Amino acid sequence: MSYLVEKKINIINKVNSIEQRIIYKGLILISIISLIKPLRKYEDYVYRANAYELLFMRKKAIRILNLSTKQPNFSKEEKSSGFIYLGILYSKTKEFNLASDCFHQGLELMVYVNFNYHDNFKKAIETFIKSEDFERANFWLNNLIQRQSYDNKFKKLGELEKKVK
After folding, report:
1. pLDDT tens figures, 19-29
2. Cα distance between residue 113 and residue 108, in whole Å
3. CB neighbours of 129 closer than 8 A, spacing ≥ 6?
4. pLDDT, tens digit, for every residue of 88-127?
5. Could you give the residue ranges of the DSSP H alpha helices within the chain?
6. Which of 24, 43, 99, 120 has its CA 20 to 30 A from that of 136?
7. CB atoms within 10 A of CB 43
8. Do the Cβ atoms of 109 and 83 come closer than 8 Å?
9. What angle do CA 126, 16, 154 make, to 5 degrees?
10. Taking Cα atoms as reference points, which of 67, 59, 62, 58 lies closest to residue 38?
């Protein structure tokens, strides 16, 4: 058995509940199928990128997501999501300047749209800080905190205000 497969099995075994194991195995199966399926919808790109990431092929995952952000038939929301996912992947490879650019592009596409809070927004602000892009960090932190008027979860970002200033 290869090292990568063995490592994934160990991850599955560490998942606590049976339901979580079933979900995790299902996600792995969907990801493997996505390697064969042609790329048509945004979800196809995400599943394929996720499959590559599960196989420790992060650069291929990044290439697939870059393609998704250039698809003319995808919505602003889908492209924005693709840029956010790219930002996460670049952060994992310690390429914080590229990650910062991707997070910025993803957020910029949705600047005038109401959307729900996600923990990835905290990662975006932290990435702006790591790349020493304090101008973007301040701008997006303020923009996102103002969104608590329709989603209280954006208050969670308030703890980052001290790090930005």
Report:
1. 666 666 676 77
2. 10
3. 137, 160, 163, 164
4. 999 999 999 999 999 999 999 999 999 999 999 999 999 9
5. 3-14, 18-34, 42-54, 58-69, 76-92, 96-109, 120-130, 134-146, 161-164
6. 43
7. 13
8. yes
9. 30
10. 67
